[in-house]
Hints:
- The chain is built from 1 helix and 10 strands, in the order αββββββββββ.
- The protein has one helix at 9-24; strands at residues 29-33, 45-49, 70-73, 76-80, 83-87, 90-93, 101-102, 105-109, 112-116, 119-120.
Amino acid sequence: xxxxxxxxxxxxxxxxxxxxxxxxxxxxxxxxxxxxxxxxxxxxxxxxxxxxxxxxxxxxxxxxxxxxxxxxxxxxxxxxxxxxxxxxxxxxxxxxxxxxxxxxxxxxxxxxxxxxxxxxx
Length: 121
């Protein structure tokens, strides 16, 4: 006597279709391990997205320049949970009085689009 469950054609299509759809996500993003020179630094990964970010949305900056101890981070796209997410602009506290902020941006590279986080110099 056979105790294996019998799947009808529709159930097989659902299972195969779900497996194929789950696999499609992996074609959109590449995770590239980043080597770390010093052990005191946390290891990170570079996320490479195959599709370009959407065009920037219309946004406005604050009406006045930021105070001397702050910098403005403009609105931008980030890649979260397998999709682009719009992040509104915001004021950041400067780590040092003369610090200059380099805004986050996307670089188009040979293998796809790489997000470069905002940083201080």
